[in-house]
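Narrative of activities, Objective 1.

The group set out to show that a structural description can be obtained from nothing but a protein's sequence at a throughput compatible with the screening campaign. Below is one input-output pair from the validation batch, recorded exactly as produced.
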Amino acid sequence: MKRIEMVWWLSLCMGLVWETGGAAEPAKPAAPSPAPGAELKVTLPPGAAKPPAPFEGEGWQAMFDGQTLAGWRETPFAGRGEVRCQDGVIVLNMGDPFTGINWTNPFPKMNYEVALDAMRVMGSDFFCGLTVPVGTNFCSLIVGGWGGSLVGISSLDGMDASENETTKFTSFDTGRWYRIRLRVTEKKIEAWIDKEKLVDVVTTGKRISVRAGDIELSEPFGLAAWQTTAALREIKYRRVSGP
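Output recorded for this entry:
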């Protein structure tokens, strides 16, 4: 071998040793890319597998079949995240700011109760914004808003959930199911989280509305999350006769 070729060969070998710290290793095959249009499954917290608590009372009608979005459509929020069904739950992926769904079938306007399980999967704001009819008007029950702990009704006499008589603050753990129940009757709005009653307001003479803005797209019945990934399951309603 000529001297020039030998110097070149030695330089090449030394470069490989310098870069790899030893003998050169064969290149590893690249990880396969997901197929075009494939949906990425959300990793749910371990607590998502916990069985639901039974519903108290009779007459409950299911609004979610546990497998599909039959009866629902995605709320056309600008900047919304993906909505998908997996593992028996509906996942509202984090939006900028909203992601939500609307019920497309008939729903009572008064004297009813609606309940569901909701979980904050990721994020720090409300993981359940439940918008419902109150006669010819609408309002929203906000759970976990304004930094993660606020509960209240938006809006009463133009004041939203952070500034009216229903305002409450409670801590919510990420990755835990909460049973949320709302009752709307002719003179009252009541709401429970698990067994605790957090809203009990007389609505006679009050102006009821949703907060002005994008949340109006949730009317007449919708569920939404704000800059948060949420999981929903066991959505049911029934008719009631009073408070």
